[in-house]
């Protein structure tokens, strides 16, 4: 770098030029949460338990998702539902430990657990990170 | 019904388990089928558990466990009839009577049996109702024939 | 020993086996369904095909069923040949045509032999697109759940239930595509061994009905090796736990004792562990007449300590508590004040058993199965020691086989051929009982009489053994001749003193005649013989003696003493301290009740009918206020003497010479495998971090186990543990109980590293 460049603050102006250039361009950042970024179709977010048309869970509590889960954050307690049908009595995902690998959805023989595109699970209370069956049945926001 | 059960058992005094099949055959000849009570009585006579006798009897197609109906329908499933699509015929009979082979309709009018070959392969596919043979069966014909028997029944009383 | 060549590699194998048995023993994986080491081969499933070559130049070979091919010297075969693999894949695809593929809702899923074999064979895509045949299920009673659609027609259930165990009410019905296994009509299964169908069935047709209530996969279970305490046989079991509940009891293989099978009492009789009647908090009452109230452990202990201090305290032991618990009580109260918690009859019979076992050799169940003649004197074994009755039935089936095979050389494993050969012949099994028993139909001759008549028969047999006479018409002479002709004879008795003495007389007579004879004496409970070895006073004396303070260990006095005596004795007692796991009439009268851990939650030693000390380990940590009895009793003393199980066990071995070898029954808590403890949970154990998340999101520390080399964790050694510590049967690719093949020295033989347990009684007379 020459002494002249240093004296004339060339680099400073170069930088300011770049800033000026972008000042007239369309902004790249999203004004989250007012503006939401489009999510890729295969994004793996919060889990959801899918339902039959009659509103019952498709899950038969076979335990494969709990077995495959690398962070061991799924707890299932099975029970016998109406008509001898097997269903989960307890289906809990401790989302704070989940690594969103999607193995549970992949291993499920009935597509009963799927990963949605919802990612907004931040909380100030760790105990709300335990998602029970009722929470997991709900349709995700957004 | 010519003999009652006690008489049949009397014909096989001191019989062992080797007498089981002849005994069952004569029970069926006399009663037309093996009732639960008959099976248990035979078991007591031979010193065999009921499960064993049912095990042997269900192995063979010749034994029935429900009283035969007024009209006994036999569907031939021999080779010639099979080639001429007797499977459809059997299916039609099953649908028309709403029973499986070996069973009897609730009103006791018909019973169904599948047989290996009636011996009139030239007329395949064949069904036999009581002593009457019906040749070249199709699903439609089956329904008509069975209906005619039903009508006859209704006319008689 | 013959040499066989598998893919041109020579292997030495035993001569009397079939190829499947030999190859599995060498560690090769061949899929199979109908074959079972205890049931032999019938060649029904066509799954174990291998290719056999005529000589080393033959490259085309021939496909044979390995289970039906005897081993011969120089046999050349290949297991992994494209033709055979295709054959096996076709067979399993065909078997799976009608299988409902309902693994997610099937209770067998995760420990299913059919799953394992399907994966092993490589059949992973179903081409059959048509309707499947369906069956109606039956209600088979409270223990077995029936789901017939899953059946693959291997016939194992009938071969076990009907042929092996002698059950009458389960059979196979129908033919070709509509084969049905079940009863002739719905109803509870009658056999005492029906529970084994759960393990014998390679798929989910017969499943454990009580375990269905808890719906747990094998990989989610926390399990530990233990011993069944329901009778004196001491069958080895595995207790399996999930969410603090005992889910299932499985057979734990022991070559000398239970082998592959358990009785239903052992398999389904441990529900009390989860029972409503369990005592889970210490109870105490302020004064006589006040009601029992829950209290803290500290409070209960201080009350008990006060009551014990400075007074004459008597202790009443129990045959259902471990040796250590009984010993701890004896140490607390002193040997003079220790009473065996046995009824009068039990006390006499246990002491006589001990004396006789010290004099004469006894036989394990395996030795009973392989003996040549047996005489049962006075015992209805199907109620007092069911597994022993099953062993005697095997003797009755095997012995005529052994004779027929000499005349017509059929391999013994060829089950169908052997049964054709034997027909209705019965072995030299004789039974003398007060009334008809289920064992009668297997016996060559049966005698019914009063107990003194049975004792008389026993003495007559002994006399006839001593002086063989020509006349053979009397029953005693007939039995004596059969016993004298046998290479090894077993006399089974128990309960009544005179009958036991008569049985011993027969054994003595046979031994005088130079025959190898053994005496087996049944014991009513898991630790009856151990209690007799520990030694103590008779319970009837307690009524006379009485004391201010009485400690009752896991016992119900009303079951041991006459009603009036028990009431009178408890009336006189000022302070009654009871340790028990469930409510009894005795706990209802107690002043302090300390909740004891059940056998599934405690570590301890039990002595079975042959004097074999066996260790049981806790499958799960008991609830906070529940403790093992020896821990409570140790805490009642002024200071803690025995912080861990090993301390109390070693102290017992030093104090009681008879138990010197008891610590050797299993490795001590210091045992480590490559520096690690042995995990009670499988590596696949699910939900570990989240299982208590509803209480606290932080994962809790697993409970410590200072008493055993097992850990309440999924972490630890992945190696095959020593036999006394096997917590589950699993091997890569083998999730079902059939993984047991990988744990045995030889298929159907002892476990690798020797069978667990140690015999404590050395008889004077050598076998």
Structure description:
The complex is a heterotrimer of chains A (142), B (157) and C (767). Chain A has 142 residues and is α+β, with helices and mostly antiparallel strands. Chain A has helices spanning 3-8, 10-23, 64-68, 103-107, 133-137; strands at residues 47-49, 74-80, 86-94, 113-115, 130-131. Chain A contains five helices and five strands, in the order H-H-E-H-E-E-H-E-E-H. In chain A, the strands form two sheets. Chain A has a three-stranded antiparallel sheet. Chain B is of the alpha+beta class. Chain B has two domains: 5-59, no CATH class; 71-156, Glutaredoxin, CATH 3.40.30.10. In chain B, helix 2 runs antiparallel to helix 3, helix 3 (36-46) packs across helix 4 (50-59) and helix 6 packs parallel to helix 7 (139-156). The model of chain B has no long low-confidence stretch (mean pLDDT 88). Chain C folds into three domains: 3-95, Ubiquitin-like (UB roll) (Roll); 283-340 and 535-759, 3-Layer(aba) Sandwich (Rossmann fold), CATH 3.40.50; 360-528, Dimethylsulfoxide Reductase, domain 2 (3-Layer(aba) Sandwich), CATH 3.40.228. In chain C, 29% of the residues lie in helices and 16% in strands. In chain C, the strands form eight sheets. Chain C has a seven-stranded mixed sheet. In chain C, strands 2-1-5-3-4 form a five-stranded mixed sheet, covered by helices on one side. In chain C, strand 3 and strand 4 (62-65) form a beta hairpin. The two termini of chain C are 28 Å apart. At the A-C interface, helix 3, strand 2 and strand 3 of A face loops of C.
